[in-house]
Amino acid sequence: MLVDIRVQEETFSLDAEIARLAGAGFDVGGIGAFIGLVRGDAGLAALALEHYPGMTESMIARIVAQAGARFGLLACTVIHRIGRLPVGAPIVLVLCAAAHRGAALEATGFVIDWLKTQAPFWKREDYPDGQARWVAARESDEAAAGRWDTGGPSEA
Amino acid sequence: MVEILYFAWLRDRLGRSRETFVLPRDGTPSVRDIMDGLRRRGGAYEEVFAEGGGAIRCAVNQEFATLDAPVRADDELAFFPPVTGG
Predict the structure, then answer these.
(1) What ipTM does this complex have?
(2) Quick check: is B86 in a domain?
(3) Total domains present in chain B
(4) Which of A71, A118, B31, B70 has its CA 20 to 30 A from that of A28?
(5) Under 8 Å CB-to-CB from B86, ≥6 apart: which residues?
(6) Is the pLDDT of residue A33 over 80?
(7) What is the CATH number of the domain that holds B67?
(8) Would you list which residues of chain B are within 8 Å, Cβ to Cβ, of chain A?
(9) What DSSP string describes A78-143?
(10) Which domain holds residue B62?
(11) Using CA atoms, how far apart are residues A11 and A66, in angstroms rounded to an integer?
(12) Which residues in chain A have Cβ-Cβ distances shorter than 8 Å to B59?
């Protein structure tokens, strides 16, 4: 499996990343894609994202390895941005390439569900009046990861 | 000695992102023991570790850990809120 994991401030190009996977010489029949954006809740101006360098990359690598084994992926790209991102900006990209659509789509859901509960990122909401608030974790995210019926990367 | 890292609102409230913590001479403390030691410093530490109680997560050597996990010399211990990426 071709794996590419990046944590970066810069944005990403969906076209370029898809071309990279499709042109990798694998027997790729489909690519599942998830792109997370900064949602403009309640007058939000921007999100500030921070992470735990080192642990973040290793947790994402474990999630991707699990997805690769479970769904028979040929390639997987995860790009997660950090820093201050305005409303509408892309935050995260997950691309999963497989021979068939079922595996590609399921793996994409698996990776983003586990990333949300197991990768050490934190979001702060910044408002136009200068107020800032750290985002609380949501139980619905735990439930989404739990539906995959696996112990997750922490128990790997 | 142990390196302790703080993230997100814990770092904001404590006014630092990392510090060195001297372990007791005898025995192997758990993460909970170290939290108790930090709380006893008072001030912002007392507030953060008392209030945060159930909402604080930790990692030892960049692996998620429970409060019962042992902490040994030269370990890297991190305290942070539940993660909110993606």
Answers:
(1) 0.93
(2) no
(3) 1
(4) A118
(5) A36, A80, A91, A92, A112, A115, A116, A119, A121, A141
(6) yes
(7) 3.10.20.30
(8) 5, 7-9, 12, 59, 62-64, 78, 80-86
(9) EEEE-EEEETT-EEEEEEEEESSHHHHHHHHHHHHHHHHHHS-EEEEEE-TTS-EEEPPP-HHHHH
(10) 2-80
(11) 26
(12) 52, 55, 120
pLDDT digits over B31-84, tens only?
999 999 999 999 999 999 986 667 899 999 999 999 999 999 999 999 999 999
Comparing CB atoms, the residue among A50, A55, A136 nearest residue B62 is A55
Smallest Cβ–Cβ distance between A116 and the set B8, B63, B85 belongs to: B85
Strand A83-86 with A46-51, pairing: antiparallel
Which domains occur in chain A, in start order? 2-132 (3.90.1170.40)
Q: Does B85 fall in a domain?
A: no
Q: Residue A151: CB partners within 8 Å, gap ≥ 6? A: none
